[in-house]
Amino acid sequence: MDPKEMEQKKQMVLSMCICGSCPSWVACDEKGGFCFPTIGKSNCITEENGCICGGCPVTEKMGLKNMYFCTKGSEKEQLGM
């Protein structure tokens, strides 16, 4: 995927993201989208207080299987890729 396509996909992820509604969310300068490889895990969220990743439209659209992207990293990171 070229850089332009990667940026477009990142913007799509951010537009669909529901991270701000999560019980683990911590308000800071982050926008969410932690499931996306170029965003990665949160620098602000350190406690897992519940997870809504399974109900996120990004999870469905991208066929993601993991959870807690905010603390554990993107799907690729969790799969060791």
List keywords for this structure.
81 residues, mainly alpha, globular
How would you describe this protein?
This protein has 81 residues and is mainly α. The protein has one domain (3-78). Helices cover 35% and strands 0% of the residues. It is built from four helices and no strands. It has helices at 3-16, 57-62, 69-72, 75-78. The two termini are 16 Å apart.
User: How many distinct domains?
Assistant: 1
Secondary-structure element string: HHHH
Instruction: Give the number of helices.
Output: 4
**Count of strand segments:** 0
Outline the fold blueprint.
Layout: H1 3-16, H2 57-62, H3 69-72, H4 75-78
Please provide a brief summary of the model.
This protein has helices at residues 3-16, 57-62, 69-72, 75-78. By secondary structure, the protein is mainly α.
